[in-house]
Design a protein that fits this description.
Distance between the termini: 67 Å
Number of strands: 20
Strand content: 15-25%
Largest sheet: 8 strands, mixed
Low-confidence stretches: none
Shape: elongated
Length: 583
């Protein structure tokens, strides 16, 4: 059997930074060449970053991507890497008028094989996702070929992400083509438990294709989305040969024994409407060598480590890719702001995390002390700005009572944070969790101010769970647990009136979160949720609170998505909406 040393570059890219992304391709290709690789691959839309959203509709951006691709091929050759095939994703356009009726030149989600200073082969994604956070029908037209390249005597079939997630298309076409390897380049966003789904998918597709399958994934973050890596290579039987770590840039180098290509090339055959397009780069197999890279399987992270890693990755990417230096957090002494602070310290370092304690007449002594203790444990920067003088001035002018008086305190804190942000250049982090955002338990222009919401997609019960987990990890490492125990153990409270606790207005979070998961994450209706064993009156109330808070959620900052359906691109409901479940 011919041998092939494969290099899968599980790396990050930055949307719009075509020059910087191209530089990364050159740098990592040079590294792979130094390891003796015969074939190098990069993630989906590596040159432009992913997702590009409406940038795909801007002709100047499409042309910049296409031009950069050609220049990259020449650059690789000039660097002495011309004989190393490099697979890289980019934004392209269709050459012909597609069958869907869109005009010739419509944008496509493409990848190319660069070799000998030229673009040896181009192809476009065949299956376009149009669910969840994906809008690819809006931007792209599908590809209609089955690309195959012959590298060192092995036929390598190529695919892009959704080509594996949907049945038919390039997977059975790879079998028809007699491929020895199916290589899929991906930018599949993270969500909880997706690593298990991904592994089973890759195993299934390898068996269907009848060959070894390499699934290369992106790592990093883009706005709400996080990419966890977890690249996988499996045999034609579905056995795991190699698996990359989550949330880490790496180059997976792997020696594979693969079937020799047939003498007759499969060009021109048609399978599932795809014409096989075959290009021979190198016919002769490499001289037999002793395998130095047999493959390493890294175990996926456990649930808590995985979710926390996603939150850290998402925040770090948002801060760094947008050119910010530091973050600002209102520290109440409560669990939400404490967890956000811990995430921020892990993401960008405590020296660049700034906290503000903003006590009012209703702030308890232990809450003030918990904020100070958090700062001591983490090493973040803390100042205290009492809001009582501002509050008294507003009250004297407006004479507010009840809820308006309570919300004034939150809004004064929001104004204080934004003023410091403007003055000193920090971005404000909003500490709201998914439970509170769902039922509208937040104050517009108060605790909802900020540029990013790190725990926006985290239910309150998971907030407590992650706080305990982070402290336990620190203890295991012999470090100081970052979150004060009192912030975890005390009843949650907004502290906007005497003796206030969250359960004055909401059910226990364990019950609330289970109802919300059924309604928000799984789109179940009232009758289904009641049938699951929940009190009918409570369900009706919670669903009404969720429906009427849509206008608040639309004004909340973006935040890291970790669930199958987060508030944002995933869940798109009208603000003006008379429909109510059960009415």
């Amino acid at each position: 059997m011919p041998q092939l040393r494969l290099a899968l570059n599980q790396i990050d890219s930055r949307v719009g930074d075509i020059a910087g992304n191209a530089e990364s391709v050159v740098r990592w290709s040079r590294h792979a060449a130094g390891q003796g690789a015969h074939l190098v691959a990069f993630p989906e839309m590596m040159l432009t970053g992913y997702p590009v959203e409406d940038l795909a509709l801007r002709s100047s951006f499409v042309e910049a991507s296409r031009t950069a691709l050609v220049a990259l091929a020449k650059r690789l050759a000039a660097e002495g890497l011309g004989e190393l095939p490099v697979v890289v994703g980019y934004l392209g356009r269709s050459a012909d008028a597609p069958r869907s009726g869109q005009p010739a030149g419509a944008p496509q989600n493409c990848a190319a094989v660069l070799y000998g200073g030229e673009v040896a082969l181009r192809f476009a994604k065949h299956h376009l996702p149009n669910y969840g956070v994906f809008d690819e029908f809006r931007y792209f037209v599908p590809g209609d070929t089955m690309p195959v390249v012959r590298v060192r005597g092995v036929d390598v079939a190529l695919a892009i992400c959704e080509d594996l997630w949907q049945d038919g298309g390039r997977v059975p076409a790879a079998r028809t083509a007699g491929a020895g390897l199916l290589l899929s380049v991906n930018a599949s966003p993270y969500e909880r438990d997706k690593d298990d789904t991904r592994l089973e998918l890759v195993r299934k597709r390898a068996q269907e294709a009848g060959c070894t399958l390499a699934y290369l994934a992106m790592v990093g973050g883009q706005d709400e989305l996080v990419f966890d890596g977890d690249s996988i290579v499996v045999s034609e039987r579905g056995d795991v040969i190699a698996r990359a770590p989550q949330f880490a840039e790496t180059c997976v180098i792997l020696d594979l024994d693969l079937p020799a290509a047939a003498e007759e090339t499969p060009s021109g055959r048609v399978q599932d409407g795809l014409e096989i397009r075959h290009v021979t780069l190198s016919e002769e197999p490499v001289e037999p060598y002793e395998a130095a890279f047999p493959g390493v399987e890294v175990e996926p992270l456990d649930y808590d480590a995985e979710v926390y890693g996603a939150l850290v990755t998402g925040l770090r990417a948002y801060v760094e890719k947008n050119g910010f230096r530091s973050v600002l957090i209102g520290l109440s002494g409560g669990i939400d702001s404490a967890l956000v602070a811990a995430i921020a310290c892990d993401a960008i370092g405590a020296a660049d995390v700034y906290g503000v304690s903003m006590p009012s007449r209703y702030s308890s002594e232990h809450s003030r002390g918990d904020a100070a203790e958090l700062a001591r444990r983490t090493g973040l920067n803390l100042r205290t700005v009492p809001i009582a003088p501002m509050f008294d001035a507003y009250m004297e002018s407006l004479g507010l009572t009840g809820l308006a008086e309570e919300n004034l305190q939150s809004r004064l804190r929001g104004v204080t944070l934004m003023a410091i942000s403007n003055q000193e250049g920090h971005i404000v982090l909003a500490p709201g969790n998914k439970s509170e955002l769902a039922v509208g338990y937040s104050t517009l222009y108060g605790d909802s101010v900020g540029a990013y919401g790190p725990i926006k997609d985290v239910y309150k019960t998971t907030v407590f769970r992650l706080a305990r987990w982070r402290n336990a990890v620190a203890a295991e490492r012999g470090e100081t647990p970052p979150i004060p125990e009192n912030s975890i153990s005390k009843p949650p409270s907004a502290e906007l009136r005497p003796g206030q606790v969250d359960t004055d207005s909401l059910p226990d979070y364990d019950v609330l979160d289970r109802i919300l998961e059924l309604y928000v994450d799984r789109d179940q209706g009232r009758e289904e949720i009641v049938a699951a064993g929940f009190d009918p009156k409570l369900v009706t109330r919670i669903l009404k609170l969720t429906d009427t808070a849509e206008y608040k959620r639309r004004q909340y900052p973006p935040g890291t998505k970790i669930s199958a359906k987060g508030f944002g691109k995933d869940r798109r409901l009208p603000i003006t909406n008379a429909w109510r479940e059960g009415e």
